[in-house]
Automatic annotation (TrEMBL):
Keywords: Membrane, Transmembrane, Transmembrane helix. Coiled coil: none annotated. This is CP family cyanate transporter-like MFS transporter. The chain crosses the membrane at residues 12-38, 44-71, 78-96, 102-124, 136-157, 163-185, 205-229, 241-264, 271-290, 296-319, 331-352, 358-378.
Length: 394
C-alpha cells in the first residue's frame, strides 16, 4: 500500500480492482459453450470457429503492446477505465447478432481486456507492494471466477433469452458497473514511466518471463475455445458440456490464489513451474481421453492447474520486476508478445481436430505446449530481477 493511502481507501481500491478483474474473461469464456449454436444458426465453418477463438488472443497481444504508450499518455489508472469502457462496448456490439458484429465486438472487447491485463500488475506493484503475492492471487482468482461465471451461464442464459447474441451481450452490464466503480480512481497519475521497450527486449530474463506467459496463455485459450466442444464430442449435450467447462474454469480461482500466494513466498519458483503445468497436462489427458467416472476430478484438477499457471505467470511479472515502472514494462512485453504467440495455440488445436476428426493429435499438441512452457519458464523461476526503470523526461 502506498504511504499516502489509508487502510480504508486501500480496501476500496482493492475491491474496485476485483470488479475490474471479474470482467476480464467473460468476453472470452462465453463463446465456447454456444459456439455450436453459433455455427448452426450462422453457417460458421470450423475454420471460422478457429478464427473466432484465435481473434481475441491476437487482439489481447496487440493491446498489450500498446499499453506502454497508454501509460505515458494517460497513466495506468485512467488506462484501466478506458479498457473497461472498451470491454463494455465490444460486448454490447455482439448483441447485434450477425457474424461481422460478433467478430468486431470480440476484437474491441479483447482490446480493452488487454489494456487492463497489462496495467493491473503494475498497480499491484505500486499500491500493494507489501502484499503483492496475495493481491496477485486475489485478483487472478476473481478473474477466474468471472471466466467460470461466463462459461457456466452461457447456455442457460441463451435458453432464457432465446438467442446467443443476447446471451453474449448481457455481459456488458457488469462491465459498465466495473467501469463505474473504477471511475473514482481514474486519475492522471501513476508510477514512474515504464522502461524503454528496447531495454527489456535485450534482457534475457524478460524474454523467459514472456515465453512462459505466452505458452501458459495458449493452454488457457485452448480450453476457453475448445473444451465445451471436446466434451460434446465425447457424448455430452451442450448444457452439460458447458457445466463441466464451468467446473474446470471455477477451479481456476483456487488454483490462481493458492499458487500465486505460495509461489511468491518461496525462495524461487522453479518447483512450481514444473509441478503446476505438469499437473495441467495430466488432467487434460484424463478429460479428453480418460474414463467417464474420472471426468469430474479431472476437470477440477485441470481448472486448478490452468488457474495456477496464470497466477504463477503474473507472479513472475511482479517478482522479476525491480519496481512498479519495470512491472508495467515487463507486463506489457510479456503479455503483448506472449498473447500474440498464444493465439497460435487455439488455432493449431482446432486445425488438428479438424484434420483428424478426433482429439488425439490435439491432445498431443496440448502436452507439447505444456512441456515447452516448463522448459522456457524454468530459468525465469530463479530469484532475480530485470533492471529498474530509468526516468524518462517529458
Amino acid at each position: 500500500m502506498r504511504q499516502d493511502q489509508s487502510p480504508a481507501s486501500g480496501w476500496v481500491l482493492g475491491l474496485a480492482m476485483m470488479l475490474v478483474a471479474f470482467n476480464l474473461r467473460p468476453a472470452l469464456s462465453t463463446v465456447g459453450p454456444v459456439l455450436g449454436l453459433i455455427r448452426e444458426t450462422t453457417g460458421l465453418t470450423a475454420a471460422g470457429a478457429a478464427t473466432l477463438t484465435t481473434l481475441p488472443v491476437v487482439c489481447l497481444g496487440l493491446a498489450c503492446a500498446l499499453a506502454a504508450p497508454v501509460i505515458r499518455r494517460m497513466g495506468p489508472d485512467l488506462g484501466v477505465l478506458a479498457g473497461m469502457a472498451l470491454v463494455a462496448l465490444g460486448l454490447a456490439l455482439r448483441g447485434i447478432g450477425d457474424l461481422p458484429m460478433l467478430f468486431v465486438g470480440t476484437a474491441i472487447a479483447a482490446t480493452g481486456i488487454g489494456f487492463a491485463n497489462v496495467l493491473l500488475p503494475a498497480l499491484v506493484k505500486r499500491d500493494f507492494s507489501a502484499t503483492a503475492g496475495p493481491m496477485t492471487g486475489l485478483y487472478t482468482m476473481t478473474l477466474c471466477l468471472g471466466a467460470a461465471a461466463g462459461a457456466g451461464a452461457a447456455v442457460p442464459v441463451e435458453r432464457a433469452l432465446d438467442g446467443w447474441s443476447v446471451a453474449l451481450a448481457v455481459w456488458s452490464v457488469p462491465a459498465v458497473l466495473a467501469a463505474a466503480a473504477w471511475f473514482p480512481f481514474a486519475r492522471r497519475s501513476g508510477p514512474a514511466r515504464p522502461p524503454r521497450p528496447g531495454r527489456l527486449l535485450r534482457d534475457p530474463l524478460a524474454w523467459r518471463v514472456t515465453a512462459f506467459m505466452g505458452l501458459q496463455s495458449s493452454l488457457a485459450y485452448i480450453l476457453f475455445g475448445w473444451l465445451p466442444l471436446l466434451l460434446q464430442g465425447r457424448g455430452l449435450d451442450p448444457l452439460h458440456a458447458g457445466l463441466y467447462a464451468s467446473l474446470a474454469t471455477l477451479n481456476q480461482a483456487p488454483g490462481a490464489l493458492v499458487t500465486a500466494t505460495l509461489a511468491a513466498r518461496a525462495r524461487d519458483q522453479r518447483a512450481w513451474i514444473v509441478g503446476i503445468p505438469g499437473m495441467t497436462a495430466a488432467a487434460f489427458l484424463l478429460v479428453a481421453l480418460g474414463a467417464d467416472e474420472l471426468r469430474v476430478p479431472a476437470a477440477c484438477a485441470l481448472g486448478f492447474g490452468v488457474g495456477g499457471c496464470f497466477g504463477l505467470a503474473l507472479t513472475l511479472i511482479v517478482l522479476r520486476a525491480a519496481d512498479a515502472a519495470s512491472a508495467a514494462g515487463l507486463s506489457a512485453m510479456a503479455q503483448g508478445i506472449g498473447y500474440v504467440f498464444a493465439a497460435l495455440g487455439p488455432l493449431a488445436f482446432g486445425l488438428a481436430h479438424e484434420a483428424t476428426g478426433g482429439w488425439g493429435l490435439a491432445g498431443v499438441l496440448f502436452v507439447a505446449i505444456t512441456l515447452t512452457a516448463i522448459a522456457a519458464g524454468l530459468p525465469a523461476g530463479r530469484a532475480q530481477t530485470v533492471a529498474a526503470a530509468e526516468p524518462v523526461a517529458g
